[in-house]
Design brief:
449 residues; Growth Hormone, Chain: A
Length: 449
């Protein structure tokens, strides 16, 4: 059993920032984490800061090309579906490599892999500026997605190990808030730089910002205290892997697919919608319109605390119902209505993401958490990849209304899955067959009652 002790929220980040970096201390080995009481609060708070910065850096460039798609369509003389591959390629790479990264992280540790992935991510982003054509740019974007896995998937595993159940919703909220801010600033930076000096300068700027984020994370992210390396070939490994097909987990994976599908479909093709009559907006203006993401910065931390109290299933149903209404609002041919609808849909998706990952932490037994996180992220980004292409193939016939219909349908499917398969806010799959023993009230194996 893994015994987890509760560490409360902290007070002074500045004391941590003033200390030397973790040189020589990045030993991702199991530890009881015995420190004096004055360090525990600061460690908890600075961990939230570090994962927020990691989330910011990770998502800074992932969807940055969205306001540039109309520009790429003209520069590369390509179709909407072809230029949309600059958005789908990294999400496809995340889907492909996420399970592998989860398995590697179970053997090599969390912190060092997170930092290394962020540095590689910065380099690959800057190198995308050297692409001679659309195919090469898509290739660099695919490589970017592979690097994103090392940060995003491992951060999820890091948080679920280092954070108590009571504080998990808030910690995930901090990470998702960083994701939201990164997604917003990435689009704004890309649109502004492209309009001022071309798309290549946009990728160089994004690479520089990502490198800065990597250095901050290296500086402040605490080393793992509860990580235990896991090796293959253990007795019962196949039996444990079979637990991934538990109905709760399968539903969680499908909900992740639907959630990102709806978000990517709306925000990828909103650029085409707003760049055409009657709006006729350019890359800079479209990038600036992604300020609607900032609504999520306010909504997500507040809603993440509701997840802890009312349960993931109810939050999924509530948030995605509101998100479907927001998506429908964008059909009104008014800039104000489109912006309001996108803001509502984005905030709903962010809250649903916190709820889904929080439930995943409860549903997956401890030995499967990294693998389950990897599979979840795979399904999540497969949804994003499909959403980046499918509406484009049908755009000529269905246009923006077709895109909205796809998004709303995915949201409704996610609500139905959570209502049917999630047995309750704290339900978990049967554990006796896994030899893990029962869950305590807190949801952590061996945690104090």
């Amino acid at each position: 059993m893994i015994r987890i002790t509760y560490q409360s929220t902290a007070n002074d980040i500045l004391d941590i920032l003033a200390r030397p970096p973790h040189a020589g201390r990045d030993m991702d080995a199991a530890s009881d984490g015995n420190t004096d009481d004055s360090e525990a609060p600061a460690r908890s708070r600075v961990r939230s800061l570090a994962v927020a910065v990691a989330g910011f850096s990770t998502f800074l460039g992932l969807y940055a090309p969205q306001p540039l798609l109309g520009h790429f369509e003209r520069v590369f003389a390509a179709s909407k579906a072809e230029v949309a591959l600059t958005v789908s390629a990294p999400t496809a790479a995340v889907a492909l490599f996420a399970p592998l990264v989860g398995l590697i992280a179970d053997r090599t540790g969390r912190r060092r892999l997170i930092v290394a992935a962020l540095v590689v991510l910065a380099a690959v982003t800057a190198l995308a500026a050297t692409a001679p054509g659309l195919r090469a740019l898509i290739g660099w974007r695919f490589a970017e997605g592979a690097a994103i896995c090392g940060a995003y998937v491992v951060c999820l595993s890091y948080l679920t190990e280092e954070t108590s159940p009571r504080a998990l919703g808030g910690a995930l909220g901090a990470m998702v808030t960083g994701n939201v801010l990164g997604g917003f600033f990435g689009r704004v930076i890309a649109g502004a730089f492209t309009e001022a000096s071309g798309w290549r300068s946009a990728f160089l700027a994004l690479g520089a910002v990502r490198l800065t984020g990597a250095l901050v994370v290296w500086r402040v992210l605490p080393a793992s205290r509860r990580f235990t390396p896991r090796r293959g070939g253990r007795p019962g490994a196949i039996l444990r892997a079979r637990a991934l097909v538990a109905p709760e987990l399968l539903a969680s994976f499908a909900i992740g697919f639907c959630n990102l599908f709806s978000l990517v479909a709306l925000f990828t093709y909103a650029g085409f919608y707003l760049g055409a009559p009657p709006f006729r907006l350019g890359p800079g203006a479209i990038g600036a319109l992604f300020t609607v993401y900032l609504v999520g910065v306010v909504v997500t931390p507040v809603a993440s605390r509701w997840v802890d109290s009312v349960g993931s299933r109810r939050m999924i149903a509530c948030s995605l119902s509101i998100g479907a209404a927001g998506a429908a609002l964008t059909l009104v041919p008014s800039i104000a209505c489109v912006l309001a609808g996108l803001a509502i849909a984005a905030s709903a998706a962010f809250v649903a993401q916190v709820a889904a990952t929080s439930y995943l932490r409860i549903a997956a037994p401890a030995p499967l958490r990294s693998l389950a996180s990897g599979v979840y992220v795979t399904c999540y980004y497969i949804g994003g990849s499909v959403a980046g292409v499918l509406p484009g193939l049908l755009w000529a016939r269905a246009g923006w209304a077709g895109t909205v219909s796809f998004a709303v349908a995915a949201q409704l499917v996610a609500i139905a899955l959570s209502s049917r398969a999630w047995r309750g806010p704290t339900a978990a799959p049967p554990r006796a067959a896994l030899g893990l023993g029962p869950l305590t009230r807190s949801g952590w194996p061996g945690a104090p009652e």
